């Protein structure tokens, strides 16, 4: 274990990335064929009837997940927490929050998942802790405290009085609005907190912090968990604590000092040695890495460097942000998205590994954001039309994502097309990020509340956090207390639960769930899906997302019309001979298909005999 800064190899002297060969299916790690399902526990299923999701609720839905066919469950944080950021503020890493259950229930859940052939990974939030964690309580108790240096304490800016505007040690901003520094009156210093005031950043440059984190991780692995999703793991190594120039970026001011900071690759290699070495074949790790360019992703995921298996990149989910960032939403240009995803497909092929996602607990719902959730048609009274576009657009996007090279992640409710939420005023929003942004923009900067709310409705993380709609009973079947009028879910269920729910979807001739089942099965059974090379077709086309996957002499052609208008297929996408593999046209409507035109939101996947599709030899 590297204990001293002087021993460290800075990232820019790290060895160049070894470009290994195309993955060999015969000895590829298990997670290259896996699909992951993310659970946000407070909103997944409420087993004890208190309006708050829990482990008992999760246990009751394992069969739904097993039937879907997923290989791995990722649990968002379930540790004891004051819940200022829904559990991403952890007060004790080695226990379960009583709202969710007990360690015994956790062990039973893990065993039940394993019995069904599913693995389970934990959310590891170690860039910061809760301000109620024992480490921080000690750290803030006095300047001489044992653990003072476990967090990042700095004096006020020279010449300023601590706690007054402008006295913060640097001009860095928080991810959740306002300054990134929190004044502590008792000890007369600021501490760094890149997120909420209750989420102080750990000082990873202190080897005792790292040792404590690694010991905690081993404790979970010894308990049987199958790996970790690592929250903002690319932010753990801070650079210089200096003022920075304002830049237009989707990251807060200051991020260039700590995003993919000077020692981050050293720390992840060390973590691998200390925690995973010798047992990593059965495990998987995925780093969440906002603000990470491809060049760093190649370092993080190169198997020969042994850092993490894959990362979540953020470039593609920033393409509908305007100049003002996520609260300045812009229309997505499909060409930009295709170019971006193709760049990541090429950039990690044979040298690292992609994760594939279009939504999670921090993002709006996929079908509302990129597809058509049918809201417009519903307002015109066209219930069937609304259902049709929601099904077709959800499945088209799913296919386009899942048939790329990488490990796909499904977010709870995505598998049956849950939508964004019709939020009204600010009182409807629960998320600290949304509330802080509203307060800052409206109360401090004088923005028009109507504009701020309009952007919030589109982009807020709350869209993803309402209770899962299991059926059409009270509260969408989320809570075991559905017959008790005095208990309501912690966040109201989306009012569309009577029509959009898991049970209705599974009974429908247009079932999004069944389509996901087929996508997952394809990845499991067809090595072209898992390992084939990705080649984008028609990059300049504004409606069509088309690509091939090639492995040896096998070629899969994916063509998707990601628009609400018919799309004539260019000749490059019409091979002379092709075997149908998958489509989102329901069986009883298949006869009407025009081979030369993709209907709105239609996706077709075909196998073509060899080489590139036979351009020009159209049907
Ligand atoms: O969602 C975001 C803002 O729009 C992101 O910037 C997000 O805050 C960032 O991706 C980090 O996310 C992770 O860490 C946060 C937590 O709030 C998120 O839920 C988590 O996924 C702090 O732990």
TrEMBL record:
<dbReference type="InterPro" id="IPR017853">
    <property type="entry name" value="GH"/>
</dbReference>
<feature type="compositionally biased region" description="Low complexity">
    <location>
        <begin position="8"/>
        <end position="23"/>
    </location>
</feature>
<dbReference type="InterPro" id="IPR013780">
    <property type="entry name" value="Glyco_hydro_b"/>
</dbReference>
<dbReference type="InterPro" id="IPR006047">
    <property type="entry name" value="GH13_cat_dom"/>
</dbReference>
<comment type="similarity">
    <text>Belongs to the glycosyl hydrolase 13 family.</text>
</comment>
<feature type="region of interest" description="Disordered">
    <location>
        <begin position="1"/>
        <end position="23"/>
    </location>
</feature>
<feature type="domain" description="Glycosyl hydrolase family 13 catalytic">
    <location>
        <begin position="38"/>
        <end position="465"/>
    </location>
</feature>
<dbReference type="Pfam" id="PF00128">
    <property type="entry name" value="Alpha-amylase"/>
</dbReference>
<protein>
    <submittedName>
        <fullName>Glucohydrolase</fullName>
    </submittedName>
</protein>
<dbReference type="InterPro" id="IPR045857">
    <property type="entry name" value="O16G_dom_2"/>
</dbReference>
